[in-house]
Specification:
By secondary structure, the protein is of the alpha+beta class. The protein has one domain: CNF1/YfiH-like putative cysteine hydrolases. It has six helices and 14 strands. It has a six-stranded mixed sheet. A hairpin with a 5-residue loop joins strand 7 and strand 8. It starts with 17 loop residues before the first strand and ends with a strand. 46% of the residues are buried.
């Protein structure tokens, strides 16, 4: 079985040296409610199934991804060091073969690369991390002029399904009043938030205007994506990026 047929290849004008891949929930071995390509080893799935699912990805990767222990914060790991289970929510790589990865099931995965194909990054942008500045911290760690960077937004919970409270809206508007446009009235005391727009606003404020992707809703597409908001107990997808080794 070729796992690539179940994955999404980001459509963005990244340099030839940049490789990226987004998994879906399909193509793995896990049983319900983790069916089938669950990559999360912290969600209650059978460890052997998770290990085998990750092994299935090995043929598509130049090396072992740097799996993070995500905590909805802003810590950025150095994927070139090659360690696993680092506590953080983003990673940056400059060495060919170092694989950055974030796992999600409604939160927004953000990939970044520069025009020269010399640095890549992956960030886990749930609302808490996004509000706290995980994108800004990731870009700072890339040590590259923002105008030379481009971004790709992976599958996340869509604006018709992402219900949040007044506290979430207030947190974003305290940072930038323009965030008001990303919130539409929902039930009393609730708002429907557009996490894609919130991320685009943060990127634009940094000077990153070339932003691709955004629009694949994890919540509404149960056949393709895991969704924590929809299912509660569920698996995790992976969003990967790396620099290709010279041939």
């Amino acid at each position: 079985m070729d796992l690539r047929e179940y994955c999404i290849v980001p459509e963005w004008p990244a340099p030839a040296a940049v490789r990226a891949l987004q998994t879906t929930r399909r193509g793995g071995l896990s049983a319900p409610p983790y069916a089938s390509l669950n990559l999360g080893d912290h969600v209650g799935d059978e460890p052997l199934h998770v290990a085998r699912n990750r092994q299935r990805l090995a043929a598509l990767m130049p090396g072992e991804p740097v799996w993070l222990q995500q905590v909805h914060g802003v810590v950025v790991a150095d994927a070139d060091l090659g360690s696993c289970r680092i506590e953080g929510d983003a990673s940056v790589a400059r060495q060919p073969g170092s694989v950055c990865v974030v796992m999600t099931a409604d939160c927004l995965p953000v990939l970044l690369c520069d025009d020269a194909g010399t640095v890549v990054a992956a960030a886990h942008a749930g609302w808490k991390g996004l509000a706290a500045g995980v994108i800004e911290t990731t870009v700072q760690n890339m040590a590259c002029e923002p105008q030379r960077l481009m971004a790709w937004l992976g599958p996340a919970i869509g604006p018709q399904a992402f219900e949040v409270g007044d506290d979430v809206r207030a947190a974003f508007m305290a940072h930038d009043a323009a965030a008001k446009a990303a919130f539409q009235p929902g039930k009393p005391g609730k708002w429907l938030a557009d996490i894609y727009l919130l991320a685009r606003q943060r990127l634009a404020a940094l000077g990153i205007t070339r932003v691709y992707g955004g629009g694949l809703c994890t919540y509404s597409d149960a056949e393709t994506f895991f969704s924590y908001r929809r299912d509660g107990v569920t698996g995790r997808m992976g969003t990967f990026i790396w620099l290709q080794r010279p041939v």
